[in-house]
Specification:
There is one protein chain. By secondary structure, this protein is of the alpha+beta class. The chain has helices spanning 46-59, 121-130, 132-135, 167-178, 186-189; strands spanning 4-6, 13-16, 19-21, 27-33, 63-72, 75-85, 92-101, 106-114, 183-184. Helices cover 20% and strands 27% of the residues. The strands form two sheets. Strands 2-3-4-8-7-6-5 form a seven-stranded antiparallel β-sheet, with helices on both faces.
């Protein structure tokens, strides 16, 4: 269970505790980790955080598309958009997430989707439009160095409207819709922040009963 007390699940069907899917193939999941977050830097050290996250994703064989700080229910967080090779077949999976870190724990909200039988069409059409020289770019978070899977303009949000059914578009849109509906248990919000002082820590929130933990915003 997680400290999440509210989350709009409209259009999603629960598959197991903390995991939902929808008709378009999106997978939504929530996680709570009662350990010190493994983020490579505090949220306020954005340049070091982004570089470290890029290297972590590259080390796992993927590519970090973007990393953006923000607030989820008023709590500082970092949003990541990642692409990973499918491995068993051609194509990529796209993962959008918010990590909400506290000093000794974290909550993660994640949305992911994978390409189907047809792969690479978005990339090919955009490259044909802008040209190969303008298509590929150095990774912006590593000072021009490589950062795992190739960084390119085809992953930018400006193209999403043209490729409305692409998994990257779906992930980005779903995360944007869901984020404002997330609410946390007050005990989680009161925990010391990640990267803060080494003051005595409050215990993590206790798991409440499973039923009634989540609620649809339209309920």
């Amino acid at each position: 269970m997680t400290p999440i007390t509210g989350l709009d699940l409209t259009g999603f069907t629960e598959r197991e505790t903390g995991v939902w899917t929808d008709a378009s193939g999106l997978v939504l999941s929530v996680h709570f980790f009662p350990v010190v977050p493994d983020l490579p830097a505090p949220l306020h050290e954005l340049e070091r955080l982004r570089a470290g996250l890029t290297q972590l994703v590259a080390g796992a064989g993927g590519g970090l598309i973007e990393s953006v700080p923000g607030l989820v229910d008023g709590v500082p967080a970092v949003r990541q958009l990642v692409k990973m090779p499918l491995g068993s077949r051609p194509g990529q999976a796209f993962i959008g997430s918010w990590t909400i870190p506290r000093a000794q724990s974290s909550t993660v909200v994640k949305v992911q989707a994978a390409e189907g039988a047809t792969t690479g069409m978005r990339e090919a059409m955009i490259m044909a439009q802008v040209g190969p020289a303008a298509y590929f770019r150095p990774h912006p978070y590593l000072g021009g160095q490589a950062g795992g899977l190739p960084y390119h303009v085809g992953d930018e949000e400006q193209w999403d409207a043209r490729f409305a059914d692409h998994p990257l578009t779906l992930v980005r849109a779903a995360l944007r819709r869901i984020t404002p509906t997330v609410t946390f248990d007050d005990r989680f919000k009161a925990l010391p922040p990640f990267g803060g002082s080494a003051a005595p820590q409050s215990p993590p929130p206790q798991s409440p009963p499973r039923r009634g933990w989540f609620r649809r915003k339209d309920a």
